[in-house]
């Protein structure tokens, strides 16, 4: 009898765990990283064609001012709105040196600024905020303390919190957020561009694959569709991740962490990036 009760209890527990909602809704997404939200017909067609249901929209940067401390910079304006049915996720980029000391009231200021921008621009239904910061071992503690405070404030508003995760951050303790977006771009050293593509190269990703399986945070994946221009001795040199390299990395990370198929992002939404790759490439990037 006791054995039967234990089996029933285990079965109930397994069902409960299986039904636990993920903090990440499955879907396709893009980053929007310009200073004015304004979509043309090509961009709108892209959102529709690839069933994009989330746009992570950079609202402003936070930079360090020597006398005033962390300050907002390059705030977006809203000349347009997203198509109906697409969720807008306010995203804030914080320069790493803002976290060399504990930033006083920064979490509160960011929440207030985002809420004010939403109200001013009649943006309703925001369910999530994302913070982007290339934190290091030096700034990690202050950044995580900041995220803890921010998460507590957002919880009272029923708003989730996510953050970007760079490859080198996978070796650290996971941050106190609902989920992370693994940034699979800018993986190489920009000064070693003659050896390999600094935007994305499987050789730069491979050493970090061992951290994926046990990383204690739900993860989405973001892939590059942009290029860099570099002027060297008057010569304009382009760096763009090949479709082959993107898909090679996608296969490798999903093998170690199948969850990375759940929510897929590209960086970022712009005409040049849309035209850079074939339809079949985008279909493979966004394949679940």
Descriptive keywords:
288 residues; alpha/beta; 31% helix
Note down, in words, how this protein is organized.
The chain has 288 residues and is an alpha/beta fold. The chain is built from eight helices and 13 strands. It has helices at residues 2-19, 41-49, 106-120, 140-155, 202-205, 243-256, 271-276, 279-285; strands spanning 27-32, 36-37, 52-65, 69-73, 77-78, 87-94, 128-132, 160-165, 179-183, 219-224, 227-232, 235-240, 263-267. The strands form three sheets. Strands 1-3-6-7-8-9-10-13 form an eight-stranded parallel β-barrel. The chain has a two-stranded parallel sheet with strand order 2-5. The protein has a two-stranded antiparallel sheet with strand order 11-12. Helix 3 (106-120) links the parallel strand 6 and strand 7 (128-132). Helix 3 (106-120) packs across helix 4. The longest helix has 18 residues, at 2-19.
Task: Give the SSE layout.
Elements: H1 2-19, E1 27-32, E2 36-37, H2 41-49, E3 52-65, E4 69-73, E5 77-78, E6 87-94, H3 106-120, E7 128-132, H4 140-155, E8 160-165, E9 179-183, H5 202-205, E10 219-224, E11 227-232, E12 235-240, H6 243-256, E13 263-267, H7 271-276, H8 279-285
Parallel strand pairs: 1-3, 1-13, 2-5, 3-6, 6-7, 7-8, 8-9, 9-10, 10-13
Antiparallel strand pairs: 3-4, 11-12
Helix pairs in contact: 3-4
